Amino acid sequence: MPRIAFLVFALLAVIASASALRAGQEPDGRPQYTNGTSLVLPADYREWTWLSSGLGMTYEVDANRPERPPTFTNVFVNPSSYKSFMKTGKWPNRTVFILEARESTGEGSINKAGRFQGAIVGLEAEVKDSRFPDGWAFFNFGPPPSLKKAVEPIADSARCVECHTRNTAVERTFVQFYPTLMDVARRFGTVKPGF
Hints:
Largest sheet: 5 strands, antiparallel
Radius of gyration: 19 Å
Helix content: 25-40%
Number of helices: 4
CATH topology: Chalcone isomerase
Structural class: alpha+beta
Number of strands: 8
Strand content: 25-35%
CATH architecture: 3-Layer(bba) Sandwich
Shape: globular
């Protein structure tokens, strides 16, 4: 009987692994590429570890930008990298972050005040992977309905790397906006000197 249970468990593990690969990722959520560097959008990123949400966050003030409702941003990271960070305060090689931008609205159902998340307006990724120069790459899958299934790194990634090098708390990630992870980084002493 134990042997049959083992075989059933092994078969289920193989099926789960095959499903994950069909979804465009390795079983642990690490990146999968086509052509060596085109990142495949993970179909199940919303099942990953949620790190934080922001509302109306922007890196630059643009006086010419028309007034519009603020955008929500949700940040997800692959689960195995999250678990590793919780044990070490560092992101392992092949970590994937997904930044999901959603419109914000205040009109709907019974809502009388405040804002809630609406439709997706863009998806981006940041990947720590030694296959890229400097070990990091940034990807833009675009907005729906023209969302791409696989994309090459952003052409001006140097600008992204520069900003993420200069302004982030841990490695090239904005851990300062993820309160529970900032506590972990402080405990392990992985916060950048001078931050």
